[in-house]
């Protein structure tokens, strides 16, 4: 795995050139899950051409993927039957001089601020489509500013923390990428999402993965085939304490398992996992994680794991 270089802009006193969002041949691959949320899905947001709105050129965003059901207890049933979906999400445009991204939601005509990358250390985030306005004296702040290497160029990455919990970064905003919660992932109202969450898995531009790393295969979710009702992947117990057992369906011999924290950072990887594989929580802090099974040919399954 290549080394991801991270530099503090405070150390060098310089910032890299601003990098806008791609305008063609790009998609954001994501997943969402939660408890009793009807939000269990694997999907991507695709730039699907240009459109003219109010005399201004925007890039259309198509949302497509697979919607999975929940169990009677409210847990996501990834890997089983699913409902394919495709819909128009809206349109975005780059304001390069202003370092902003604007968004016109589907069936609306007025644009809203989606991202503002005019950020400095300790800034308070302004109200945007994904960030609620500060209220009751509580708000999101820029806890850290780093420069990371993405597709051969250094881009600014902003670590976001809650004003009442400084030092605890829960999401990152990255130039040209968006949020580690996903392109339209909400950063919550007064606190990070808990019973619902989305995560950015990767971004692909011109057929190549550019984030989080170029060697990662950024697989697009298709809805051209269904899978067996028996395709049930799980980790038990969940929540876990010291250890947990992996369960994979009988018609899958093995799969690769990855764990991501809520910022989208990979924190664990296990290759060639078989049914009843046991892994331990050593090295994992208490909190919410996403797990992802890769069982070949672009087939993925996953869900949310709580470590206590």
Task: Output the keywords.
308 residues, mainly beta, eight-stranded antiparallel β-sheet, five-stranded antiparallel β-sheet, 20 strands, globular
The total number of structural domains is 2
- Spatial strand order of the main sheet: 7-6-5-4-3-2-12-13
C-alpha geometry: globular
* Order of H and E elements: EHEEEEEEEEEEEEEEEEEEE
What are the low-pLDDT stretches, counting only 5+ consecutive residues below 50?
1-7, 9-13, 189-193, 224-230
- Rg: 19 Å
Backbone structural class:
mainly beta
Kindly report how far apart the N and C termini lie.
Answer: 29 Å
The total of beta strands comes to: 20
SSE diagram, text form:
Elements (H helix, E strand, L loop, with lengths): L5 E3 H4 L13 E9 L6 E13 L2 E12 L15 E13 L4 E6 L6 E5 L23 E11 L2 E10 L8 E4 L3 E2 L16 E10 L2 E4 L22 E3 L6 E5 L7 E7 L4 E8 L4 E3 L6 E8 L5 E8 L1
Antiparallel strand pairs: 1-8, 2-3, 2-12, 3-4, 4-5, 5-6, 6-7, 8-9, 9-10, 10-11, 12-13, 14-15, 15-18, 16-17, 16-19, 19-20
Question: What can you see in these coordinates?
Answer:
- This protein is mainly beta.
- It has one helix and 20 strands.
- The protein has an eight-stranded antiparallel β-sheet with strand order 7-6-5-4-3-2-12-13, with no helix packed on it. A five-stranded antiparallel β-sheet has the order 1-8-9-10-11.
Task: Summarize this entry quickly.
The protein folds into two domains: 6-211, no CATH class; 234-307, Immunoglobulins (Immunoglobulin-like), CATH 2.60.40. A hairpin with a 6-residue loop joins strand 14 and strand 15.
């Amino acid at each position: 795995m290549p080394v991801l270089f991270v530099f503090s802009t405070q150390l060098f006193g310089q910032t890299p050139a601003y990098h806008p969002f791609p305008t063609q041949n790009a998609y954001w691959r994501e997943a969402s899950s939660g408890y009793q949320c009807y939000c269990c899905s694997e999907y991507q947001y695709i730039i699907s051409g240009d459109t003219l709105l109010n005399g201004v050129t925007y890039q259309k965003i198509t949302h497509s993927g697979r919607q999975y059901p929940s169990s009677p207890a409210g847990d996501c049933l990834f890997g089983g039957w699913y409902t394919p979906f495709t819909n128009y999400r809206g349109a975005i445009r780059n304001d390069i001089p202003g370092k902003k991204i604007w968004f016109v939601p589907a069936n609306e005509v007025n644009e809203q601020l989606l991202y503002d990358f005019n950020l400095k250390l300790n800034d308070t985030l302004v109200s945007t489509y994904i960030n609620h306005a500060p209220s009751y004296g509580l708000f999101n702040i820029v806890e850290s500013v780093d420069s990371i290497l993405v597709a051969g160029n250094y881009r600014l990455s902003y670590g976001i923390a809650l004003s009442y919990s400084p030092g605890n970064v829960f999401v990152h905003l990255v130039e040209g990428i968006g949020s580690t919660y996903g392109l339209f992932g909400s950063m919550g109202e007064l606190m990070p999402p808990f019973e619902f969450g989305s995560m950015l898995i990767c971004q692909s531009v011109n057929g190549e993965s550019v984030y989080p790393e170029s060697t990662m295969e950024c697989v697009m979710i298709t809805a051209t085939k269904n899978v067996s009702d028996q395709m049930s992947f799980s980790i038990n117990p969940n929540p876990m304490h010291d250890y947990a057992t992996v369960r994979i369906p009988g018609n899958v011999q093995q799969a690769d398992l990855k764990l991501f924290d809520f910022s989208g950072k990979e924190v664990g990887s296990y290759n060639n996992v078989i049914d009843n594989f046991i892994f331990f929580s050593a090295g994992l802090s208490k909190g919410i994680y996403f797990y992802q099974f890769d069982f070949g040919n672009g087939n993925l399954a996953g869900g949310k794991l709580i470590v206590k």
